[in-house]
């Protein structure tokens, strides 16, 4: 289902109002604590007013209206070079202010060229996800509030015909996701992009990680070669370097802020971990969320099906939560994203689709219920809290005893973690009620079954197999965390290029455990329909 343009715009405008209120509070807070010669969080001592004479008064007025006075480190180091027209490859921590760092020079470039709608698209921003594209578009709207250039947003899940019509009329600033952009470049004949002056690739490593490498290469082949290019990324990997060679001039300017830092995550973030056996994981999560239900919490899972199941379960037992995952329709993801952004408190369950680049205000806790694929993903996940000037937040990583070795990788990546203490006597023992509910409620039973299978499959596909080895899983304990007494059977895809059969779990009871599946008979994950409200008379709240 396509999202009506007016719905997206209404949500973006509502979020902009909330952001302005938040910025005003933070500005007062940071000014009251500011000591000359120091900076809080990611702020530098460089004022935006120092750009007077280099950028237009309209842009400076817009920045002031957005509540910003001092630049962040990445802004102070990149904006002067970008205003000179240089190609830049910039690496910076999540939450360090990359968006304004590339938007301000792009706005000034088209302002000086007096770009008009008839000139077509002069500046193009490519973002990896729809949510990040909407967020960037919202910031661009604020920045262009006093100027006449046109702007547009194109992304999957919205009305393509409406987008093509707007492109035909001339969109000076365009924010896009890779797939939909390539579609319009190839099929929208009235899309004028021959005058492109500036290309911005945001979260480049994420674009490549989620499989858009070929689309981006095709886009680069189509776009004009004479342009300024900016590539921003949280990390610079081998794949990113390959993209740099294709997208930028022979000698771009590299700007990185993370290499000599003592830690790879932002200041103001209290990070810790807890070691928890598999069968107690859900009990710990339930108790933690109950205690922090008045705060703003994000919980990360390894699969869409696990997010869906826990969303259904927690809401069913009267612990209200929201969810975002890749199998939702875009309209639902958009609504939930803005609902959580605008809320003062709430719990959001999500997959890594929400972990990159998104600016969600005032998140108190990041809980990693399922560990990330590598330290890089950990950094991006916790980057949702303690953002911007003087930001504060907390992060909790839940590990099985067999996964403690992951801490070594985090230490190498300059991520400091301390062990959090939990009183296990205070953990709510709702296991009997959970098992009874899952056994009697058909829809929850089926959802839990698919979530359990997805968890085991995701674990089997983990990159760090020396730490996250599927053969170390106690499937009976894992199944208990999903409400099962007997683990459902899971078919795992055999290792490619390996002649060894996947080992069967010793002591398997009938019809559970895991085994290799014939390629054509692998069970397909199913998203089941939502649980009907009021379908039975059973009490919906666990007894305590």
Automatic annotation (TrEMBL):
Q: Helicase ATP-binding domain spans which residues?
A: 79-254
Could you list the residue ranges that cross the membrane? none
Record bears the keyword ATP-binding: yes
CDD domains according to UniProt: DEADc_DDX18, SF2_C_DEAD
Question: Which is a Gene Ontology cellular component entry for this protein?
Answer: nucleolus
Identify the EC number(s): 3.6.4.13
Region (Disordered) residue ranges read 496-544
Give the reactions, separated by semicolons, that this protein catalyses: ATP + H2O = ADP + phosphate + H(+)
**InterPro entries given for it?**
DDX18/Has1_DEADc, DEAD/DEAH_box_helicase_dom, Helicase_ATP-bd, Helicase_C-like, P-loop_NTPase, RNA-helicase_DEAD-box_CS, RNA_helicase_DEAD_Q_motif, SPB4-like_CTE
Residue ranges constituting the Helicase C-terminal domain according to the UniProt record: 268-438
- Motif Q motif: list the residue ranges: 48-76
Compartment(s): Nucleus, Nucleolus
Origin, by domain of life? Eukaryota
Q: Which SMART domains match?
A: DEXDc, DUF4217, HELICc
**Domain DEAD-box RNA helicase Q: where?**
48-76
Q: What does this protein do?
A: RNA helicase.
The entry sums up its family as follows: Belongs to the DEAD box helicase family. DDX18/HAS1 subfamily.
Q: Any domain commentary?
A: The Q motif is unique to and characteristic of the DEAD box family of RNA helicases and controls ATP binding and hydrolysis.
Q: What is this protein called?
A: ATP-dependent RNA helicase
The species is: Rhipicephalus sanguineus (Brown dog tick)
């Amino acid at each position: 289902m396509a999202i009506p343009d007016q719905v997206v715009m209404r949500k973006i405008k509502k979020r902009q109002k909330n952001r302005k209120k938040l910025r005003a509070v933070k500005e007062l807070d940071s000014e009251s604590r500011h000591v000359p010669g120091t900076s809080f969080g990611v702020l530098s001592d460089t004022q935006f007013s120092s750009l007077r004479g280099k950028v237009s008064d309209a842009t400076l007025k817009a920045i002031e209206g957005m509540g910003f006075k001092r630049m962040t480190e990445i802004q102070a180091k990149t904006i002067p070079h970008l205003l000179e027209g240089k190609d830049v490859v910039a690496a910076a921590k999540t939450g360090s202010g990359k968006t304004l760092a590339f938007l301000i020079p792009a706005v000034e470039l088209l302002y000086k060229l007096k770009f008009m709608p008839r000139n077509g698209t002069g500046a193009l921003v490519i973002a990896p996800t729809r949510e990040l594209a909407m967020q960037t578009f919202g910031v661009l709207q604020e920045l262009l509030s006093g100027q006449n250039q046109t702007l547009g947003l194109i992304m999957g899940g919205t009305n393509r015909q409406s987008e093509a019509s707007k492109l035909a009329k001339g969109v000076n600033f365009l924010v896009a996701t890779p797939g939909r952009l390539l579609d319009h470049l190839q099929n929208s004949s009235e899309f004028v992009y021959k005058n492109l002056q500036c290309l911005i690739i945001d979260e480049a490593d994420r674009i490549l990680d989620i499989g858009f490498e070929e689309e981006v290469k095709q886009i680069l082949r189509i776009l004009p070669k004479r342009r300024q290019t900016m590539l921003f990324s949280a990390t610079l990997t081998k794949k990113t370097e390959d993209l740099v060679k294709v997208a930028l001039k022979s000698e771009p300017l590299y700007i990185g802020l993370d290499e000599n830092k003592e830690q790879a995550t932002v200041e103001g973030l209290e990070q810790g971990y807890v070691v928890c056996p598999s069968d107690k994981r859900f009990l710990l999560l339930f108790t933690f969320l109950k205690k922090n239900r008045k705060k703003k919490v994000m919980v990360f899972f390894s699969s869409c099906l696990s997010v869906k199941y826990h969303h259904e379960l927690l809401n069913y037992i009267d612990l209200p939560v929201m969810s975002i995952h890749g199998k939702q329709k875009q309209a639902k993801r958009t609504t939930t994203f803005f609902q959580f952004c605008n809320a003062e408190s709430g719990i959001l369950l999500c997959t890594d689709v929400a972990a990159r680049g998104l600016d969600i205000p005032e998140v108190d806790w990041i809980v990693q219920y399922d560990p990330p694929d590598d330290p890089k993903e950990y950094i991006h996940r916790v980057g949702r809290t303690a953002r911007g000037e003087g930001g504060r937040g907390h992060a909790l990583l839940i590990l099985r005893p067999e996964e403690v070795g992951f801490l070594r990788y985090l230490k190498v990546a300059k991520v400091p973690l301390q062990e959090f203490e939990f009183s296990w006597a205070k953990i709510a023992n709702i296991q009997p009620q959970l098992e009874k509910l899952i056994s009697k409620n058909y829809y929850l039973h089926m959802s839990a079954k698919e979530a359990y299978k997805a968890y085991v499959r995701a674990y089997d596909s983990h990159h760090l197999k020396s730490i996250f080895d599927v053969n170390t899983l106690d499937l009976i304990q894992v199944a208990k965390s999903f409400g099962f007494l007997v683990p459902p059977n899971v078919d795992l895809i055999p290792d490619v290029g390996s002649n060894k059969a996947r080992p069967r779990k010793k002591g398997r009871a009938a019809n559970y455990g895991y085994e290799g599946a014939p390629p054509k008979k692998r069970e397909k994950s199913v998203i089941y329909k939502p649980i009907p409200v009021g379908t039975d008379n059973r009490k919906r709240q666990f007894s305590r």
